[in-house]
Design brief:
Number of strands: 7
Number of helices: 3
C-alpha cells in the first residue's frame, strides 16, 4: 500500500481498492470498513458489486479475516469463486439496519467460515 509504515494504513488507502479472487476475477471494490467499537478491531469490509454508475449496487459484508492484501496487485484477495460469491449475504445501500441484525451477522460468519485464515 502507499503507506510507508509496515502493516498499517489509513482507511482512505483501503476504500476503493479492488477485491479479486484467486482466479484474478474482480469481485468488487471496498466501499467501507466496519469497526468493532469495543475492541477497535476491523470486523468487516463492505464490498460493492454490480449496478451501473453506483445505482443498483449490492453491498457484501466480508469478514476482515477472510481477505488478504496482495502487494503485487495492490488490492485484496478473497478465496471465493465468483459464482459462490454471488450467493453471499448482501444488502442494499438503504438497508444498513439489516446489516446489524444478529441473524444477518451469523449468515455472514457462516458463509465465509471456510475462507477465514
Amino acid at each position: 500500500m502507499e503507506s510507508h509504515l509496515k502493516n498499517v494504513c489509513r482507511s482512505s488507502e483501503i476504500i476503493g481498492k479492488p477485491v479479486i479472487n484467486l482466479e484474478n476475477e474482480n469481485l468488487g471494490k471496498i466501499e467501507d470498513i466496519i469497526l468493532d467499537k469495543i475492541s477497535g478491531q476491523a470486523k468487516y469490509v463492505i464490498l460493492s458489486c454490480g449496478g451501473f454508475l453506483g445505482f443498483g449496487d449490492k453491498f457484501f459484508a466480508v469478514p476482515w479475516a477472510a481477505i488478504n492484501y496482495d502487494v503485487i496487485v495492490t488490492g485484496f484477495r478473497l478465496n471465493v469463486d465468483k459464482i459462490q460469491f454471488a450467493s453471499a449475504p448482501c444488502f442494499n445501500k438503504d438497508e444498513w439496519s439489516n446489516f446489524i441484525a444478529t441473524d444477518f451477522d451469523k449468515a455472514i460468519t457462516d458463509f465465509y467460515k471456510k475462507t477465514i485464515s
